[in-house]
Amino acid sequence: MTMNTDSTPVIKNDDAVKKVAYGIYYLNLAGIFMPMLLVVGVIFAYVFENDAQLILKSHYQYLIRTFWLALLYFCISALLLFVLVGFILLPVCVIWWLIRVIRGLKALMRNEAIQNPKTWLF
Hints:
The protein is mainly alpha-helical. It is 66% helix and 3% strand. The chain has a two-stranded antiparallel ribbon with strand order 1-2.
Protein backbone atom coordinates (compact mmCIF):
# COMPACT_ATOMS: atom_id res chain seq x y z
CA MET A 1 0.00 0.00 0.00
CA THR A 2 1.31 3.47 -0.88
CA MET A 3 0.21 6.96 0.05
CA ASN A 4 -1.28 9.37 -2.44
CA THR A 5 -0.25 13.06 -2.50
CA ASP A 6 -3.23 13.91 -0.29
CA SER A 7 -2.23 11.21 2.27
CA THR A 8 -4.94 8.74 1.28
CA PRO A 9 -3.87 5.11 0.94
CA VAL A 10 -3.75 3.69 -2.56
CA ILE A 11 -3.86 -0.07 -3.12
CA LYS A 12 -1.37 -1.22 -5.72
CA ASN A 13 -2.66 -2.79 -8.90
CA ASP A 14 -3.08 -6.55 -8.37
CA ASP A 15 -1.90 -7.20 -11.95
CA ALA A 16 1.44 -5.63 -11.13
CA VAL A 17 1.82 -7.84 -8.07
CA LYS A 18 0.90 -10.87 -10.20
CA LYS A 19 3.54 -9.92 -12.78
CA VAL A 20 6.10 -9.79 -9.98
CA ALA A 21 5.06 -13.32 -8.96
CA TYR A 22 5.61 -14.47 -12.56
CA GLY A 23 9.00 -12.76 -12.52
CA ILE A 24 9.98 -14.53 -9.31
CA TYR A 25 9.01 -17.91 -10.76
CA TYR A 26 11.11 -17.14 -13.84
CA LEU A 27 14.01 -16.03 -11.62
CA ASN A 28 13.74 -19.40 -9.88
CA LEU A 29 13.94 -21.20 -13.22
CA ALA A 30 16.90 -19.06 -14.31
CA GLY A 31 18.49 -19.86 -10.95
CA ILE A 32 19.56 -23.18 -12.43
CA PHE A 33 22.23 -21.30 -14.35
CA MET A 34 22.80 -18.35 -11.99
CA PRO A 35 22.02 -19.28 -8.36
CA MET A 36 22.27 -15.65 -7.21
CA LEU A 37 18.95 -15.06 -8.97
CA LEU A 38 17.30 -17.27 -6.36
CA VAL A 39 18.35 -14.82 -3.66
CA VAL A 40 17.00 -11.90 -5.71
CA GLY A 41 13.73 -13.79 -6.17
CA VAL A 42 13.24 -14.50 -2.47
CA ILE A 43 13.97 -10.86 -1.62
CA PHE A 44 11.26 -9.78 -4.08
CA ALA A 45 8.89 -12.36 -2.60
CA TYR A 46 9.41 -10.97 0.89
CA VAL A 47 8.91 -7.39 -0.33
CA PHE A 48 5.70 -8.04 -2.29
CA GLU A 49 4.12 -10.64 0.00
CA ASN A 50 2.27 -8.02 2.08
CA ASP A 51 0.89 -6.22 -1.00
CA ALA A 52 -0.69 -9.35 -2.44
CA GLN A 53 -4.23 -10.56 -2.09
CA LEU A 54 -4.99 -14.05 -0.78
CA ILE A 55 -4.35 -16.04 -3.97
CA LEU A 56 -1.05 -14.31 -4.73
CA LYS A 57 -0.02 -14.32 -1.07
CA SER A 58 -0.09 -18.13 -1.16
CA HIS A 59 2.28 -18.03 -4.14
CA TYR A 60 4.69 -15.70 -2.37
CA GLN A 61 4.64 -17.90 0.74
CA TYR A 62 5.23 -20.94 -1.47
CA LEU A 63 8.17 -19.28 -3.22
CA ILE A 64 9.74 -18.19 0.06
CA ARG A 65 9.29 -21.65 1.54
CA THR A 66 10.70 -23.27 -1.61
CA PHE A 67 13.85 -21.14 -1.33
CA TRP A 68 14.51 -22.00 2.32
CA LEU A 69 13.69 -25.69 1.96
CA ALA A 70 15.85 -25.95 -1.15
CA LEU A 71 18.72 -24.33 0.72
CA LEU A 72 18.27 -26.81 3.57
CA TYR A 73 18.00 -29.83 1.27
CA PHE A 74 21.01 -28.78 -0.83
CA CYS A 75 23.16 -28.17 2.26
CA ILE A 76 22.27 -31.59 3.65
CA SER A 77 22.99 -33.18 0.28
CA ALA A 78 26.32 -31.36 0.03
CA LEU A 79 27.33 -32.60 3.47
CA LEU A 80 26.35 -36.13 2.50
CA LEU A 81 28.62 -35.99 -0.56
CA PHE A 82 31.39 -37.16 1.74
CA VAL A 83 29.60 -40.47 2.31
CA LEU A 84 28.56 -40.70 -1.36
CA VAL A 85 24.83 -40.50 -0.57
CA GLY A 86 24.87 -36.86 -1.64
CA PHE A 87 25.52 -37.87 -5.25
CA ILE A 88 22.06 -39.43 -5.25
CA LEU A 89 20.37 -36.73 -3.18
CA LEU A 90 21.59 -33.71 -5.18
CA PRO A 91 19.74 -34.69 -8.38
CA VAL A 92 16.69 -35.57 -6.27
CA CYS A 93 16.82 -32.07 -4.74
CA VAL A 94 17.02 -30.46 -8.19
CA ILE A 95 14.03 -32.47 -9.40
CA TRP A 96 12.08 -31.63 -6.21
CA TRP A 97 12.85 -27.94 -6.67
CA LEU A 98 11.89 -27.94 -10.36
CA ILE A 99 8.61 -29.71 -9.63
CA ARG A 100 7.72 -27.11 -6.97
CA VAL A 101 8.55 -24.17 -9.22
CA ILE A 102 6.74 -25.55 -12.28
CA ARG A 103 3.73 -26.60 -10.20
CA GLY A 104 3.49 -23.12 -8.68
CA LEU A 105 3.88 -21.43 -12.05
CA LYS A 106 1.10 -23.58 -13.53
CA ALA A 107 -1.19 -22.70 -10.62
CA LEU A 108 -0.44 -19.00 -11.10
CA MET A 109 -1.25 -19.26 -14.81
CA ARG A 110 -4.63 -20.82 -13.89
CA ASN A 111 -5.22 -18.07 -11.28
CA GLU A 112 -5.34 -20.67 -8.52
CA ALA A 113 -3.93 -20.39 -5.03
CA ILE A 114 -1.36 -22.87 -3.77
CA GLN A 115 -3.38 -25.32 -1.68
CA ASN A 116 -0.74 -25.82 1.02
CA PRO A 117 2.10 -23.29 0.66
CA LYS A 118 3.79 -24.53 3.83
CA THR A 119 4.25 -28.13 2.67
CA TRP A 120 7.65 -29.79 2.79
CA LEU A 121 7.10 -31.79 -0.39
CA PHE A 122 5.18 -30.70 -3.46
